[in-house]
Each structure stands twice: as C-alpha cells, then as structure tokens.
C-alpha cells in the first residue's frame, strides 16, 4: 500500500437500507513507482523489451537496441529497483546482435530472447539463470536474410516466435518445453494469407493454441489498413488457419504524421496481443491493442483495444483506452496481462501535456512547439478489458526524440526515434513498461537531457480495494448483513459509532464465506453506526 491506511467507509442507519456498492466489486486505483534508468550509457538505446520471472518475480530482464554491434541486456534481482547491464552478441560466442529484441519468461524459469542477427536472420537464445548467460536455440537461423520484427510468447509448455520474412510473409515457429533447460527443436509453420504483413505479435492460449497478428496491406498501401490474426488451434503439431480481420486502421506501416516521432519510417499501428490464462472470470479471452487515427494524414493518433472469447474468430467493438479529450498524438502501445488476476495493462507514448506553451504551461513541453514531446502513460482494466481505469503518467520527465538524431556516422543505423515498438510485462499486480527516455529525470543519463535515449522503467501498481455492501434485515432480531468480496487478503472490517472519532474497533463477529463473498451478521444496535474495510 502506498499510504499508511486505506479504507472504505459507509454510514449505516438502523431501520434503513443502505447500499454502498454491489457485493463482489473491487474499486481499483493505480500508482506509478519511481523511474529507473536501466541502461545509463552513452548513445541511443531504444526498441526495448522487459520480462518478469513468474517463478521468482524479483528476477527481471530487459534488453534494447544499440547503435553499435550487439544488444544491450540487463538483469535485476530486486524487482526492478536496480539493474546490471552489459552488451551481448558482440564477440561473446552468441549470434551477433542487431536489435529488434523481444523476451518472454516461462513458468519453469526459462528466459527466451529473440532478436535480429547477422544478415537480418532471426535468432532465439535461452537463459536458465535469470539472464546472466544465454545459449543459442537456433543453430540454423529461421530466416536466411532480411527478416523483421520477431515477436516471442510462451504458454504452459511451449514457446513461439513469429516474424516477417524477407518477402513480407509472416512465418511462425514453435518448440515444446518440458522443464528448466528442456526446450525442444523449433518447427516452422506457414501463416496463410499473410503476404504483405509485418509489425506483428504472438500469443499462446490456455490450451496451447497460438494466435499471430500483423498489419496487412503494407506493400500496396491500400487504405484503410487491416489488423489480421491467424489461429493455430492446437499449437505444436497443428496448422494455422485462414486470416481473420480484427480491425481496420488509418495508421499504416509508415505513418509519418506524428510530430513527436523522429523515426524516418514514422509509426505503425503496432498491434499486440495478450491471452488470459489466469483461470479467472475471463479465462480464455484474448486481447489486442492497436493505434488508429481519424485519417491517414492525421496526427491525432489514439489507442484502442478489442477482445475475443472464441480464439479470435470474432472480436468486440473497439474500446478507447485513453481518457484525454485533446487531439495530441498517442502511439506505440504495448499490452500485457497479469496471469495472477486477469488484469490487463496498456502503456503508450503520449503527447497530451505538450501544448506548446513551454514553461508557461503544464510540464510536458520542452521547446514551445505543441505535440512533439512525449511522456509515458498507462492504464489497467480490471473487468476483462470492458473498460479502463483513469490514465496515469508513468514517466517522471518529458522526452524529445529530435535530440536523439542523427545516428552516429558509420553506424549503418537509420533515424529511429522512439523505435517501432517497446514491450511490457505484468505480474502479481505490478505492470512494467520499458521505454526510450531522454528527459534525464533520474539524473544519470551520461548524455544529459534531451539528447540520446536511455531505457527507463517503472512499476505501475494496482491497488484493488474491496467494495462493502451493507443490508439491513428487518427480522424479529433486527440484524445487519455486511458483505464484501472473498478473498480480500489484508482487509479488516471495523466499526465506529462516531464518524468524527478515530476510535475504530474491529468487528469480532464470525465471518462466513458464502459463494464469492465474505458475510457477517451483526445484531442491531441503537443509534448510528459506521463500518469500513481497512488495510494497514
């Protein structure tokens, strides 16, 4: 808890019926933790990934692109508070690193990392010691040359990669997992109808089924563009079915109308997937996030989600994630699902606070020009993606991509800005996004403020507060029924005859679990009584 005591209180007047909220509800609140500079090194680090070990959440891993040979990788053993980084894939025996890093941690403790290697081949490496060392799983790379943006996902017993081949055809590859270090060989699978697809993602469902998504019509620039999914219903050994259109979008593969993005290719819709394997109310639901705009030339890009309860065959209407009423840009979303609760986290770059007023306006403008400075914002859904909580600012500072350009002479790198993607992870109520930041809000970017990017992270914590329902039962004994969700670990029912008094006392009556609720029946007492759930 972020405060010394959190509580929900109600007034109960005897001989009246007072209802505070439906039983079984939780009132959730979000808070952002301290920003941490993971890389704190010279030059640009961007297009980054972050993963949490579900078997030991204190272990975390992050990686990012470099404008030099190799990839930046970092490990944390204290839940992301501090990080130890290094350059990997540059003369260390692993396949050479060329960026487009994405990672995933399975239930056994295997940490998988995919990236683009030499000649733009797709590489997958695995670590069994929290990212300290890796070994190569792809002695023969999946793609001979010119592959792009590989994504990686794990299920209960498999790991999957998908990427765009040199012909812009989506290719998927899967391998079985039976324990720590016990990973089978990868088998490649064709994805029908994916010609011209790119900028995709991969997700594994509760039964091992696999869904890949990608953006379509990128080669012929047909508008509106489509977000597509293909399902492999059985996973390893199965086949992918025909493409299904999830949504159309006005944001193409080279949407260059976002002033905040210095990437010479602009942004794409950046469709990403998250599949609920939590065992909760929405178990089996798969979520997709993407970017859309009013028109192909608009800078008013915004973030939306949809969900499917039938393995991607049909999808919900779009749900707008952001709560800003202005028209400034929002772009490059990521989505992650907390498999301990079913909560869905979304984070993105946001220009909402850049009104061009410089120091005369709210923090969020660095140069007096509107809509070209960004902050990292996030939100969470606790109802299966039906709606999202009020957005919160996660980054402590404001970043400006133009200062990160141009790339170093002779590096062979193009202007990348905030990149084409940045990833996130969500576990046990803590949602972590990693992002490119040159605000130097932490004071340890060696290049200073508004110049080269370091990669930052912060925890977005979900504080779910149980809602208390009070009913007055007009019986011969005049009893009061109090009910709240079960379990509500750490919350205690208290009572007080005077709301202005600090003398709250614990209710000692027996608590019974009835269905999904805790219930207490209290004999009627004279006067007014107040009840609350308190968490120390």
What is the gist of this entry?
0% of the residues lie in helices and 42% in strands. The chain has no helices and 38 strands.
Mind explaining what this structure looks like?
The structure is a single chain. 49% of the residues are buried. Strand 8 and strand 9 (111-116) form a beta hairpin. This protein starts with 5 loop residues before the first strand and ends with a strand. With 536 residues, the protein is mostly beta strands. The chain is globular and about 85 Å long. The protein has strands at 6-13, 26-32, 36-37, 45-52, 60-66, 71-76, 84-88, 102-105, 111-116, 122-127, 135-136, 148-154, 158-164, 170-179, 182-183, 187-190, 198-204, 210-216, 225-232, 244-249, 272-275, 286-292, 302-308, 319-320, 330-337, 344-350, 375-381, 392-393, 424-427, 430-437, 454-466, 469-473, 479-485, 492-496, 505-506, 512-514, 517-523, 528-535. Strands 2, 3, 29, 30 and 31 form a five-stranded antiparallel β-sheet that branches. Strands 12, 13, 14, 15 and 16 form a five-stranded antiparallel β-sheet that branches. It is built from no helices and 38 strands. The protein has two domains: 6-25 and 467-535; 27-139 and 147-465, Neuraminidase, CATH 2.120.10.10.
């Amino acid at each position: 808890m972020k405060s010394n005591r959190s509580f929900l209180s109600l007034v109960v007047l005897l001989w009246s019926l007072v209802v505070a909220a439906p039983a079984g509800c939780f009132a959730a609140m979000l808070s952002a933790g301290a920003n941490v500079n993971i890389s704190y090194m010279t030059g640009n680090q961007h297009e980054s990934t972050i993963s949490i070990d579900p078997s030991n959440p204190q272990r975390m891993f992050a990686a990012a692109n470099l404008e030099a040979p190799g990839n930046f990788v970092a490990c944390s053993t204290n839940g992301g508070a501090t990080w130890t980084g290094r350059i990997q894939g540059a003369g260390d025996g692993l396949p050479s690193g060329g960026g487009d890093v994405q990672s995933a941690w399975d239930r056994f403790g295997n940490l998988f990392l995919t990236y683009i290697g030499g000649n733009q081949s797709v590489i997958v490496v695995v670590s069994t010691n929290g990212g300290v060392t890796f070994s190569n799983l792809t002695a023969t790379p999946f793609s001979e040359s010119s592959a792009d943006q590989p994504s990686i996902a794990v299920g209960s017993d498999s790991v999957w990669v998908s990427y765009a081949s040199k012909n812009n055809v989506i290719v998927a590859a899967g391998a079985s997992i039976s324990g720590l270090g016990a990973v089978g060989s990868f088998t490649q699978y064709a994805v029908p109808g994916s010609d011209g697809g790119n900028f995709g993602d991969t997700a594994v469902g509760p039964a091992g089924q696999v869904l890949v998504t990608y953006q379509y019509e990128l080669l012929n620039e047909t508008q509106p563009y489509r977000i597509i999914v293909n399902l492999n219903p059985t996973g390893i050994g199965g086949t992918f079915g025909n493409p299904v259109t999830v949504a159309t979008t006005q944001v193409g593969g080279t949407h260059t109308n976002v002033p905040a993005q210095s990437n010479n290719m602009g942004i794409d819709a950046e469709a990403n997937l998250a599949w609920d394997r939590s065992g909760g109310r929405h178990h089996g639901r798969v979520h997709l996030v993407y970017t859309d705009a009013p028109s192909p030339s608009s800078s008013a890009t915004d973030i939306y989600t949809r969900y499917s309860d039938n393995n991607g065959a049909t999808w919900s209407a779009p749900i707008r994630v952001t709560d800003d009423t202005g028209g400034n840009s929002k772009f490059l979303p990521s989505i992650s699902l907390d498999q301990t609760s079913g909560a869905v986290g979304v984070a993105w770059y946001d220009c909402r606070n850049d009104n061009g007023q410089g120091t005369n306006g709210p923090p969020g403008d660095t140069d007096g020009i509107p809509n070209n400075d960004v902050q990292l914002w996030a939100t969470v859904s606790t109802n299966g993606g039906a709606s999202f909580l009020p957005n919160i600012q996660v980054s402590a500072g404001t970043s400006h991509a133009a200062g990160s350009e141009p790339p170093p002479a002779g590096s062979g790198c193009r202007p990348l800005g905030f990149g084409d993607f940045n990833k996130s992870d969500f576990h046990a109520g803590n949602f972590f996004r990693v992002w490119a930041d040159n605000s130097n809000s932490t004071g340890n970017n060696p290049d200073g403020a508004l110049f080269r990017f370091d990669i930052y992270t912060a925890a977005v914590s979900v504080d779910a507060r149980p809602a208390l329902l009070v009913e007055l039962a007009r019986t011969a004994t005049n009893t009061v029924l109090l009910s709240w969700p079960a379990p509500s670990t750490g919350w205690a029912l208290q009572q007080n005859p005077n709301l202005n008094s600090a003398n709250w006392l614990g209710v000692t009556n027996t608590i019974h679990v009835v269905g999904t609720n805790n219930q207490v029946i209290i004999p009627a007492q004279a006067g007014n009584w107040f009840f609350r759930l308190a968490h120390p």
